[in-house]
Amino acid sequence: MRKPWQIYNLPRPKSEASKGPLSLVYYEIYSGIVVPKKAFVVRFDGWSFHSLTKKLKFKEPFDKLFVNTLAKTTQQLFRFFNPDLGYIFSDEINLLFLKQTSFRRIEKIDSVFAALASSVFYSSLKKKFKEVPPVAFDCRVIPIGTKNIFKYFAWRQAEAFRNFNNAYARYALMKGGMTARGAAKKLAGVKTKELRKLIEQSGIDLKKLPPWQERGILIYWKYFKKIGYNPIKKRQVVTTRRKPIINWKPPNFNSLEGKKFFKMLIK
User: Fold this and answer.
1) Would you give the DSSP letter of residue 206?
2) Which one, 115, 178, 189, 258, has least CB within 10 Å?
3) Distances from the Cα of 85 to the Cαs of 17, 88, 100, 115, 225, in angstroms?
4) In angstroms, rounded to a whole number, what is the distance separating the alpha carbons of residues 194 and 162?
5) Quick one: 23 and 66 in the same domain?
6) Are 2 and 49 found together in one domain?
7) Mean per-residue pLDDT for 137-149?
8) Mean pLDDT throughout 41-52?
9) Phi, psi torsion values for 103, nearest 5 degrees
10) Is the pLDDT of residue 26 over 90?
11) What pLDDT is recorded for position 130?
């Protein structure tokens, strides 16, 4: 008789649940799926964040407190999970891992990473607001491989650019008296060139807006030297430390500077 996971052509379960005559552990059919031995991305998306931003009265179309909270959350994820690169925009966090981590099971990554991101983000908001509605991120694992790293992040930055133009166009129409639903309907299928024209006609100077709104934000490790004292050898020592920093002015990933950045990262 075929086992449950065999029926669905899945790997043998790797559940930590107890086994025995009463156990149904073999029905945990997704627990055997692990991350391939290649570069992968863990991508988080805010769940129902439109409602969250509305309840907390964040500014439209972009709010610095909101995105700063997202960036600080990503820094905390660096300290917990040790990714090689982070990229954020809107309510999305991307973490790049160049190799396997101690977390190998997809179920574990999707659950633990999403839970921790939600907890850190919520705790950060609680320091600023008296009442904060429930916060949740969903999470997925994308095994892109080394050859697709640049292509993946160029794709996400293109999405950030699209989101930027749509957000400001929607804001411009609503500032002119249109409802949110009416603005969404009017902007459906409109090309980027027309969106930018609409924005500029409303009096918004796109060239004066912060770069992070259009290009997203990068988070990566920065290494530095620290002078300490060795009490045993009774002399000063220099050690290498690192910390995750936030780059609010990332390059266009398709530019020469952007391509050079990713080439150095992969090395």
Assistant:
1) G
2) 189
3) 33, 10, 14, 20, 21
4) 12
5) no
6) no
7) 95
8) 95
9) -90, 110
10) no
11) 93
Tally of domains within the chain = 2
What DSSP assignment string belongs to 157-221?
HHHHHHHHHHHHHHHHHHHTT--HHHHHHHHTT--HHHHHHHHHHTT--GGGS-HHHHH-EEEEE
Q: How far is CA 44 from the centre of its chain?
A: 5
The closest of 55, 202, 36 to 129, measured between CA atoms, is: 55
Range of the domain at 15: 1-33
Residues 80 and 13 in one domain: no
Residue 27 pLDDT > 90, yes or no?
no
State the residue for tokens 């002078």.
Answer: 227
Q: Do 58 and 5 fall into the same domain?
A: no
3-class secondary structure, 127: coil
Give the least confident one: 26-30, 58-62, 118-122, 138-142. Answer: 26-30
d(CA 78, CA 157): 20
pLDDT digits (tens, 9 = 90+) for 48-77: 999 999 999 999 999 999 999 999 999 999
Rounded to whole angstroms, how far apart are CA atoms 246 and 76?
A: 12
Q: Residue 98 falls within a domain, yes or no?
A: yes
Could you give the 3-state DSSP secondary structure of residue 48?
Answer: coil
Using the structure block, give the residue that is written with the tokens 């607001």: 129
> Cα 174 from chain centroid?
28
* pTM for the whole structure: 0.92
Cis check for the bond before 4: say yes or no (omega within 30 of 0): no
Question: In sequence order, which residues have a C-beta less than 8 Å from that of residue 64 and are 6 or more positions away?
Answer: none
Q: Phi/psi of residue 180, each to 5°?
A: -60, -40
For residue 175, what are the CA distances in angstroms to 50, 108, 202, 249? 18, 44, 9, 28
* 145-204 confidence digits (pLDDT tens): 999 999 999 999 999 999 999 999 999 999 999 998 999 999 999 999 999 999 999 999
